[in-house]
Specification:
It is built from ten helices and ten strands. It is an alpha/beta fold. The strands form two sheets. It has an eight-stranded parallel beta sheet with strand order 3-4-5-6-7-8-9-10. The longest helix is centred in the N-terminal third of the chain and has 15 residues. The mean pLDDT is about 95.
Length: about 280
C-alpha cells in the first residue's frame, strides 16, 4: 500500500483505509482466513477480547512473513473490565494472547453508560499507552457527548471511534461530530450484514455502470466519506474483491444516491449506545 492508502490519526499513527473484521474467525480456520487476507494485502486486523480470537490473530500475523511494523493489530476492552485497575491487566493479556510485543490500536468496545465507568476505563487506556502496550487508543460506539467527557476530563482525544455505519444507517451527525473532534470514524458492519443492502436498485445500478460489485461500491462510498470500513470475510476471493476499491471513484450523484438509503430505524443490531450494556 502507498501513503495515499492510509489515514493518519491525531496521534500520528497510520491506518490503512480498509481493514479486515475478524469476528467469528476462530481457531485454525480463522488463522488460515486471516493469513489469506494478509497475503492479499490487508494490513489491519480488527479483533476484540469478546471475539475470543486474539490468539488466532497473533498467529496469523507472526506467520505472515510481513514485517510487524507494516501490520496494524487492533483489539477492544470489554465492558466487564472498565474499572481502571483492570484495564492495564486486560490489555497485557491481549498482548500476551497475540504473542506480539504490542498492539497498534485498542478501543473501549462500548461505553456502557449505565455502568458509568467509561471515563475510568479511558484513564486506564492512557496508562496502557504510556506503558507501551499499545500505540494508539480509541473508542467504539461512543456518542458525541461521551467523547466530550473523555476529552474534557483527561485532555486526551480518542484516535478512532468505531461505530455501526452503512448506507441504511449513514451516521451523518456522528461522522460530523467525530471529524470536528479530530477523531477518525471506523465502520463495523459496513456492507449491511444479513440485509438486502447489496440488492438495492441504486447500488446495483451504480455497480453495473462502473463494472464493480455492489460490495465494492459500498466500500468505496465509505472511503470517500472519510470512513475506514472493516468488512469481514473468510473467503479469499471475497477478501480480494473487498480490498480492490482504489481504481475507481464515485461521483457526487452516486454518493448521494447511496447516502439517501439511510433510514431513521436503520440500525441492523439492536444496540443503541445510549442504553446498550456489554459484558
Amino acid at each position: 500500500m502507498t501513503v495515499s492508502d492510509h489515514y493518519t490519526l491525531n496521534d500520528g499513527t497510520t491506518l490503512p483505509k480498509i481493514g479486515l473484521g475478524t469476528y467469528s474467525l476462530w481457531g485454525h480456520a480463522g488463522v488460515e482466513a486471516m493469513a489469506a487476507a494478509l497475503d492479499e494485502g490487508y494490513r489491519l486486523l480488527d479483533s476484540a477480547v469478546n471475539y475470543e480470537n486474539e490468539g488466532a490473530v497473533g498467529k496469523a500475523v507472526r506467520g505472515s512473513g510481513i514485517a510487524r511494523e507494516d501490520i496494524r493489530v487492533a483489539s477492544k476492552l470489554p465492558g466487564r473490565h472498565h474499572k481502571k485497575s483492570a484495564v492495564v491487566r486486560t490489555i497485557e493479556e491481549s498482548v500476551l494472547r497475540t504473542g506480539l510485543d504490542y498492539l497498534d490500536l485498542y478501543l473501549i468496545h462500548w461505553p456502557n453508560p449505565g455502568q458509568g465507568l467509561y471515563l475510568e476505563a479511558w484513564e486506564g487506556m492512557i496508562e496502557a499507552r504510556e506503558k507501551g502496550l499499545v500505540r494508539s487508543i480509541g473508542v467504539s460506539n461512543f456518542l458525541p457527548e461521551y467523547l466530550d467527557v473523555l476529552i474534557q476530563k483527561t485532555g486526551v482525544t480518542p484516535s478512532v471511534n468505531q461505530v455501526e455505519l452503512h448506507p441504511y444507517f449513514n451516521q451523518k451527525q456522528q461522522r460530523a461530530a467525530d471529524q470536528a473532534r479530530g477523531v477518525l470514524t471506523q465502520a463495523w458492519t459496513p456492507i449491511g450484514k444479513n440485509t438486502a443492502l447489496l440488492e438495492e436498485p441504486a447500488i446495483v445500478a451504480i455497480a453495473r455502470e462502473l463494472q464493480k460489485t455492489p460490495a465494492q461500491i459500498v466500500l468505496r462510498w465509505h472511503v470517500q466519506l472519510g470512513v475506514l470500513p472493516i468488512p469481514k470475510s473468510a473467503t479469499r476471493s471475497r477478501q480480494a474483491e473487498n480490498l480492490a476499491i482504489q481504481d475507481f471513484t464515485l461521483d457526487e450523484a452516486q454518493m448521494t444516491a447511496i447516502s439517501t438509503l439511510t433510514r431513521s430505524d436503520g440500525r441492523i443490531f439492536d444496540a443503541d449506545p445510549s442504553i446498550h450494556e456489554e459484558f
